[in-house]
């Protein structure tokens, strides 16, 4: 038997356990190091692989950067900001090797092919964290929950904030569970739009990473990602850019309605067309200068 504890969101439960050594992969959810610092925890940030994959346990042991006895370990699955999904098998390998508490943060799991819930049912030190903020559109209500071993959940329940979840948030969250058919249809629609957008962007020359979330992480062509950020913003297309060494070449594009994605693609085509025309005109001017000087 496993139990769950409701939290204002998953982060509130994290605060309750942020003591001693806390670790996570990077890039990942940016609040992990913030919460660790607030609570005086020793943070251990270990890089993901270059393709944003989780290193194998054997590789983590060889590198000697990962702490298999850390008091608390976070794994964001699927990963944000990359959108990379992780198989249950590779997550389980890490769960078996880890000695401290593991939180598998499944914020975007409703858009993924696999989930890790069975690991929380199997291992007494594993917690699965979920939220109603993304797939269920309740970001302003801040409702999340943990699933894990009854003793571990009971310990978290003892120290959670008295002003944890507001009544309206609870009512809204329960209402979504009464209409799962609608939400599941919506998940599938978002996934279909995501895959179509990925194909279209690939044709335009974007490097599109495989996504198991409601966004795409893409490396744009022709010029740097921050340049694309500005040009898209000028056309009222808003995307995210993360100015860190491992992510600065990418943009994160949230999946919107079909019409919104088509608007993005139309603007991207126009930007690329103007870039090519500018390059051609620049080359022509250079040739004329060389001829006149010759």
Large-scale geometry: globular
Query: What's the helical proportion of residues?
Result: 40-55%
Query: Any idea of the CATH topology of the largest domain?
Result: Aspartate Aminotransferase, domain 2
Radius of gyration: 22 Å
What is the CATH level 1 assignment of the largest domain?
Alpha Beta
DSSP, total strands: 11
Proportion of residues in β-strands: 15-25%
Distance between the termini: 85 Å
Supply the CATH superfamily name of the largest domain: Type I PLP-dependent aspartate aminotransferase-like (Major domain)
Strand arrangement across the biggest beta sheet: 1-7-6-5-4-2-3
State the CATH architecture of the largest domain: 3-Layer(aba) Sandwich
Global mean pLDDT: 89
Q: What number of structural domains do the residues give?
A: 2
Number of helices: 10
- Main structural class: alpha/beta
Instruction: Report the sheet with the most strands, covering strand number, pairing sense and barrel closure.
Output: 7 strands, mixed
Low-confidence residue ranges: 289-294
Q: What's the SSE pattern? A: EHEHEHEHEHEEHHHEEHEEH
